[in-house]
Amino acid sequence: MDTIAKVSAKSYNERSWEIVKLSSLTFRNGDIAAMLMDFMRRNTRNFLIAIIVLIVPAFILWGTVPTLGSKEKRTLLRIGRQKISFEEFAAYYQSVRERFRLNLGTNYSPELEEAFNLKQQALEQLIREALLSREVERLNIVVSDEEVQDTLKRNPAFYTDGTFDPAAWNAALSNPRINWAVLIEQEREQLRFQKLEEMIRSEARVTEEEIQDEFRRQFEKANIEFIVLKASDLADTVDVSADDVASYYEHHKEEYKEPPLIKLAYVTLKKEPSEMDYADTKQVAESILDRARAGDVFSELAEKYSDDTATAAMGGDLGFFGKGKMVKAFEDVAFSLNPGEMSDPVRSPFGYHIIKVEETKGEGQQKQVRARHILLKVEPSDDTLLSLEEEAARLSLAAQKSSLEQAASEIKLSASVTPEFVETSGMIPGLGVVPEISEVLPGLKAGSTSDVIETRTAFFVVQVTERKPEHIPQLSEIEERVRAATRLDKALALARTRGEQIVQEANTKKLALRDIKNVPEVQKAEPFTRRGTPPEAPALSGQVAAVFQLSEGEAAGPFMSTDAAYVVQLKEKIAPDPAEYKARKESIEARLLMERRAQVFEDYYQNLKKHNNVRIDEQLLQAA
Q: Residue ranges of the PpiC domain (predicted)?
C-alpha cells in the first residue's frame, strides 16, 4: 500500500470526516476546497499548519447551526428530492461572508458585499456543487491514490532549489498536527470535479470557418461619412414659451435635485515652530559650528547632523551655483564668504544653515560658488504643539457660546468661511480633501462646533453655520437654467427630425450624404474596427456595432448625443489583410476554444438545473 493509502486507512477510523453531508449530497463548503488547495500552492511549508486551522472552523460551523427558534428546519432550497434548510444555507452564507471580509481586509464595506451580490453567489455555488456532485457519482468518476499523491507532491512546499525534497514530504506526513485524512479526501474530491469538468469541456470544438469569421470580425474596418446636426445651430430657430419651461421643469424635476449642502466656518492653527523652537535650533547649530571651527571635519559633521537628505551623504556638498539659484538669505551669505570661511547660522524658510565656501570661479554676474552646508530643520516642539492644541481647545469651548468667527477674533485669530458645498463630496472649499474633518461633519448640526480636529499639519476647529437638506429648487429659483435646457431639448428634437429625414432620403433615393441638399458639412472618419471608435466622432462610441450592421451605401441614425444628432453612411467595409491571418490564427483559435469550453460547461450545468427541478423559497432567501 502506498503512502497515501496508508495515511488514509490509518486516519479513516480514527477521525470523523469533516465534510458536510446534507442527505445523500456531499458538500465541500462551497469553494473551500479550491481555496485551500490554492492556498497550498501559493504558500511555503508553513501552509501545513495553517490549513488545519482553516479547515476545522469552516466545517465545524455546519455542525453548530442554531435552529433560530424552531425545532423543525425550514427548507430553503430543493434540488429534485434533495433539501437544504434555511439554517444550513444561513451558516454556509455566513462562512462565505466571513471569507469575503477576510480577503478584502480594510477594503471591505457592506456596499461592496451588496455590489458583489454575495448571497446569490453563495446560493448558486451550493446549487452548482450539488448538481455536479451528483454527476460525479452518476458517472462514477474515480481518482486513484496515486493521482492524489502526485498532485500533493507537486506543491512547491516540497521542493528545494526546484527539486522534489523527500525529507520535506516525509516530515509533513509524520506531522501529528496535520489531518491528512481530510486533506487527502479534499484533494480527491477536487480532482473528481476537475475530471468531470475536463470531460465536459473536452467536447468543445472550433472550426476553421469560425476562426476565419472571428479574424474578420476583429480586423475588418468600416469606412464611413457622417454629418453632425448641432443643437446649437438650431437653438435660435426655437421659440420657448413659459408653458414650455413649466412643462420641461415638471418632467425633469429630479434632474435638478440638489444634494444636502453645508457651510462651514473654520480656524486653522498650523503646526509651525515657534520663535522659541527657532532659538533652540539656532543654539544647536551654533554648537555644531563651534566644533567645525575647532577643527572637526565639516563634511563629516554634515553627514552626521544635516537634515538635507539630498546632500548629507555627500558631506553637504551643493556643487557650484550662481546667483538666483538659492533663496536670498542663503545666497547673500554664501557670496560674501571667501573660500575656506564658514558662516554663522543663517535662517531661511528651510531652517538654519551653516555654510562653508570651498571655492569660487568667475567674476561679477558670472561668479559661481561651490559650497557645503549643514541644514537643521526647525520643527515644532512638543511644548509648541501642546500650546497650539490647548489654544484650539479654548477656541472650541468659546465658540459653543457664540459664532466661531467672533470667538476667533477675540483671541486675534481669523476664521475662514466656505461657500455652500456638498458634504459627501469629501472636498472642502479652501482646504481640499481633509478626511479628519469630513469624518466629523455628519455628527454636527447647524450651529454646532467641533472639538479639536488634528491632522498631520494642523489643528482645526470647525463650526457648521448652515445646512440645507436634499431638495428640488422652485422653478423661480432656476428658471434661466430650465429655460436653457428647454431650448436645447427642443433644438435636439429638431435635429432628430431633420436627421430622420436625411436618413430616409439617402436610403430611398440611394443618395450619398453629400448629394442631399441643405445638410451640414459631410465629414470623413478614419477607418475603424469593431473595437474602435472614429476619433473624428467620439459620440459614436456606442454605435459601432450598429455601423457594422449596415450595408455599403446605407445610412443610419440619427444617433443622439447630449448636444447633437449624428447621421452615418457606410461607404465600405475593408476586409483584413489575408497575410495577417496566419500570424493571428493560433491566438484567435486559443481564445475561441477557451470561450467555447467555458460555454459548453455552462450549458451542461444549466441543462442539469433545468432537468433537476431546482426550487428556491425566495421569501426565506431574503431572510438569510
A: 259-359, 366-466
